[in-house]
Amino acid sequence: MTDGAAAVLRRLRELVDSSATRAEKAGAVAQAIKAARAYRWVGLYDVGPDEIVAIAWTGSDPPAYPRFPVTRGLSGAAVAAGEPVIVQDVTTDSRYLTAFSSTRAEAIFPVAIDGRTIGTIDVESDRVNAFAPEDEEFLRSCALALTRLWI
Predict the structure, then answer these.
(1) What single DSSP character describes residue 149?
(2) Three-class SS of residue 12?
(3) Residue 115 backbone zone (phi > 0: left; psi -120 to 50: alpha; other: beta)
(4) Which pLDDT belongs to residue 99?
(5) Residue-wise pLDDT tens digits, 74-95
(6) What is the DSSP letter of 102?
(7) Distance of CA 65 to the CA centre of its chain
(8) pLDDT tens per residue, range 8-53
(9) Nearest 5°: phi and psi at 88?
(10) Which domains does the chain have, with CATH numbers?
(11) In contact, 106 and 87? CB cutoff 8 Å
(12) Considering the entire predicted model, what is its pTM?
């Protein structure tokens, strides 16, 4: 992991441990992840037994699907597998729930405690093939660093 990525992970831990409200923490975390790798959009979601619900996102507009069944979309696939789902061209994947018409690639990283997915990090790009192995390593590390946001 690069020094830059390590610094971002330290910053994420500081944000989670701050005295801010959970919503403020989540918003700051989403912004920090977006800025770290110049992603187009980042959202954080709670995962319940039946629904996935947005808790924070970058930008001023809410996601097109602020809540949806845990069995739907790329997020539902990541929750079911307990593993990240990275789609380099969303136009080729029928599971994709269109949030923004300009999205071309999306990556969902589960946040888990004791093997149970409790949240997700959703990252979108307006470029096909936007996610490199470095992104996967970085976002896996973010998911591990952020578990306390969901406790």
Answers:
(1) G
(2) helix
(3) left
(4) 77
(5) 999 999 999 999 999 999 999 9
(6) T
(7) 14
(8) 999 999 999 999 999 999 999 999 999 999 899 999 999 999 999 9
(9) -80, -15
(10) 3-150 (3.30.450.40)
(11) yes
(12) 0.93
